[in-house]
Specification:
Radius of gyration: 22 Å
Strand order of the largest sheet: 5-6-9-10-11-12-13-14
Distance between the termini: 64 Å
Oligomer: single chain
Shape: globular
Number of helices: 17
Strand content: 5-15%
Number of strands: 16
Largest sheet: 8 strands, parallel, barrel
């Protein structure tokens, strides 16, 4: 695998956040200049005064109800949360949730969790173009605790990669806690994936398929809330019945969830192009809960972002598939597919997906990730270009081993062939002139 060579250097743990670094707990004083952190073993214990700030693997198939749990978790009163040194006991849970969200700047534009796609280099690219927070890809809690290679490859971060949600799938509270403890010094939320609708999630018994076992869901949340220094967030899908969704969301809030992201599609509505997300259901959740609520679904460009925030009242929006094609979405760029009805209001943004891909590749050289992730992003960002020059795509597919040199040359070849698919921006001056013409 082609990865940039790095030079070791000494780094003081007292300067933990003064520079980004690559952390190897086996040699706690040795770091390299890749500026990324991976988790090999147990992280250092968090100082109580510090800032607390589609899926390819299976979860363990534990489907038994947890001991001592009632048959329904919707109407139970949760135990009190908080332990000495973690939170001020006189603060309410909701106040703590909002204090933390406010401390992070109340980010509104957020990169959604995407398996093999929301890894560190892509997160950093999206942050450059307007994203204000991001989720890691979904991590498999059991494998994360057991497999050092998996930890090294699947979770990397750096100082600039904040605010950050680290997401796990799980169906065992103890295993989930063990995994979460490894990442809590490096994130702002530990997130529980309760929304993955894929068939593999059904087989692994996690994600949206835990909607059939709400006592287990509640136990996962409470286990983390009672034992972590960072807040716990959850990401869910809606039930077909709105009242079931509201009870579900309220149960999570009562269990100690500090932030809830709601995908406005049901477990069976997997095709985002076929099924529109139900923003009214997200609005109902927002009106029911007191903690911050994020909206997910139907976000293709910034007009959608603004409309979603207005219609749902949500505190932020997540985008997934649209960002893969256009990582500059949150900066106001859009693909030709989503041009406004009045094309005169849209201009060439002097940026295209090949430009973004080159930036992404440079970030991958700085923050190494598995090549399967890089290959996926190449296909996503250059999909429109490959439709114009399919021979170039075929040459990419023939490569069993990729190199950065090959990928840079692939972009150069497309440009030499005269291919360019621009990203567009709204011409605010044209829009303003049009509006003035209507009013006069």
């Amino acid at each position: 695998m082609n990865k940039p060579k790095t030079k070791p250097l000494l780094f003081s743990l007292f300067n933990f956040y003064s520079e980004p670094f690559f952390f190897n707990p086996k040699f706690p004083m040795a770091f390299t200049q890749t500026h990324a952190r991976t988790i090999h073993s147990d992280p250092p214990q968090s100082d109580t005064n510090s800032n607390n700030d589609d899926d390819d693997v299976f979860c363990s198939s534990q489907q038994e109800d947890q001991d001592g749990q009632s048959s329904s978790a919707l109407d139970e009163t949760p135990p009190s949360i908080g332990s000495p040194g973690k939170y001020l006991i006189w603060e309410s849970r909701v106040e703590r949730a909002w204090a933390h969200w406010t401390k992070l700047g109340r980010p509104k534009f957020i990169v959604a969790p995407m398996v093999d796609n929301s890894e560190l280099p892509f997160r950093m690219l999206c942050r450059k173009y307007g994203a204000e927070a991001a989720y890691t890809p979904m991590l498999h809690s059991r494998i994360f605790t057991e497999n050092e290679k998996y930890r090294n490859e699947e979770f990397t971060t750096c100082k600039e990669d904040r605010p950050l949600f680290v997401q796990f799938c799980a169906n065992d509270p103890d295993i989930l806690l063990e995994a979460a403890r490894r990442v809590e010094p490096y994130c702002d939320y530990v997130d529980i994936n309760l929304g993955c609708p894929q068939r593999i999630a059904r087989r692994g018994y996690y994600g949206a398929f835990l909607m059939d076992n709400l006592p287990l869901v509640k136990s996962l949340v409470e286990k983390l809330v009672l034992n972590l220094n960072v807040p716990v967030s959850c990401k869910i899908r809606v039930f077909p019945d709105l009242q079931d969704t509201l009870k579900y969301a309220k149960m999570l809030e009562d269990a100690g969830c500090s932030l809830l992201a709601v995908h406005g599609r049901t477990r069976d509505e997997k095709d985002g192009k076929k099924f529109r997300a139900d923003w009214s259901a997200i609005k109902a959740v927002k009106n029911t809960l007191r903690i911050p609520v994020l909206a997910n679904g139907n976000i293709r460009h910034m007009d959608d972002v603004q409309n979603c925030l207005e219609e749902t009242g949500a505190d932020g929006v997540l985008s997934a598939e649209s960002l893969l094609e256009n990582p500059a979405l949150f900066a106001g760029f859009r693909t030709a597919e989503w041009l406004a009805d009045n094309e005169k209001e849209n201009i060439d943004g002097k940026l295209d997906q090949a430009d973004l891909l080159v930036e992404y590749l440079k970030l991958c050289e700085r923050y190494p990730v598995p090549w399967r992730m890089i290959r996926s992003h190449v296909h996503k960002m250059l999909g429109d270009w490959f439709r114009i020059q399919p021979d170039v795509r075929e040459d990419l597919n023939k490569q069993s081993r990729l190199t950065f040199e090959f990928l840079y040359s692939l972009v150069d070849r497309l440009r030499e062939l005269g291919v360019r698919v621009p990203l567009y921006e709204k011409d605010t001056s044209a829009a303003r002139s049009s509006a003035e013409g209507v009013t006069t």
